[in-house]
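Trying the structure run again after the queue cleared.
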Amino acid sequence: MAGYQLSVCAEMVFLDLPFVERVARIHALGFGVEIWNWENKDLDALIGTGARFTSMTGYLAGNLTDDEDIAQLLQTAERSLAIAQRLNCPSLNLHGTGLDPKGLPVKPVEVVTGAMWLKAADTLGKLAQRGERAGKVFTLENLNLARDHPGTPFAKACDTLALVEAVNSPGLKMNLDLYHAQIGEGNLIELIRRCGPAIGEIQVADVPGRQQPGTGEINYRAIARALDEIGYRGVVALEGWASDDSTAALQQFRDHFTL
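Done. Tokens:
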């Protein structure tokens, strides 16, 4: 029996249902639940589902490198921490920059300078301190530039790993998204082994199509074994679309991660 926990992003499955009903359905199927932007959600109704929330977006605006945007990021991260306390949610997710509703950077970056790296590490250190004080963990997610998120700084898993290791705090970990990593870097099992203790969460979907494991080219059964071999005890979350029926898609996800 693997030691990790399975969770599902409610933003991408059971799309025919109102959001709170999606959360309730995922919970009833025995999974944890992940959400994105909390600001447009009925928080009391979400709490009322009894769901176990494993991750939520940890900011509403801003970025890691520009002073005015850093102030926005830190202020909205504080608000997010308060919501995470209400939802009893342990992890708050971050990206290399603020993203618009289409997943594109609000401020695209073509060249990431050394000064930007230093500023990003400093900002993440401040976020990590806030997370530690609140008993929560911020996770920095890798994204792909080729298809979904062009112009995002610090997008590759090697970038997020470098920043997490530079900050070196229990309040900041990686959200290692294997869908994005397959498109951006590949060599996923070696990547998992390299990242090891820096991983705070694993997110999955298959390539191409960003659907549940078993619909594309990634050998997720081998991924599951690799996570078990390194003793991973965190969350593995499906952040992908259902190829057809959502209940069947979640069962397929579970099957691929059941050892």
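The chain has a mean pLDDT of 97. Worth checking whether this holds up in the mutant runs.
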